[in-house]
Amino acid sequence: MSDRTLVQQAHRRILHMILEGDLKPGEILQEAALGERLEMSRTPVREALKRILSQGLAEVQGRFTRVRRINAEEVEEIFFLRLALEPNCAREAIQIDPDLLDAMEVRTIALMRQGPGDEDVEWHTDNEFHQMIALAAGNRATARLIANLHRRTAIFDHTLVPARFLKGWADHLDIIDALRHKDGPRAEKALRAHLEGARDAIFRRLEQTGIRQEPAA
């Protein structure tokens, strides 16, 4: 098993432990202890914890890295911002290079055919898709903000929300087709529906784990 595969496996297992409550908010994340628990060496665990930190699921407090409480309101705020920015970018991206669209379409179809597997390739393809549209809209500052927001919700990939795997990629193909036909309103509508579908699937997942609570009246 390659080093990269071990890191992916460690990351996925630690992520599940956090979301299922096996690792509780405030609990210290120690490489050695997690390595024993996962029956892995410290190296893949260390790299996995770096990802967990970058995704906002852990935080450094003094000398320790601790599990950070997942805040459903924070996820809602992230999608509020993405919905305010990305559909507008899709509407404005109709002058996008057709070669970029063709290349992204080929990559997307290949991922759909092979099914869930290489999480890094899937994440980078998804990220590049959203960046392709944001950059084509002509605002690099907005593109950087979208990249940061995307990173913070990318933890909810197909391993945690499996129903989104084929649906998410199919949404991408629909958006690509709208952009290829220079149909800005259709691209905007399709990207909005894509984000709303992802948001709703994440909230259903959070409800299953008891993390998302209904707001007080």
TrEMBL record:
Family matches, as SUPFAM superfamilies: GntR ligand-binding domain-like, Winged helix' DNA-binding domain
HTH gntR-type domain ranges (all copies): 4-70
Keyword line: DNA-binding, Transcription, Transcription regulation
SMART domains (UniProt xref): FCD, HTH_GNTR
Superkingdom of origin: Bacteria
Record flagged with keyword DNA-binding: yes
Entry GO MF terms: DNA binding; DNA-binding transcription factor activity
InterPro entries for the chain: GntR_C, TF_FadR/GntR_C, Tscrpt_reg_HTH_GntR, WH-like_DNA-bd_sf, WH_DNA-bd_sf
Xref: PANTHER family: GLUCONATE OPERON TRANSCRIPTIONAL REPRESSOR, TRANSCRIPTIONAL REGULATOR, GNTR FAMILY
Name of the featured protein: GntR family transcriptional regulator
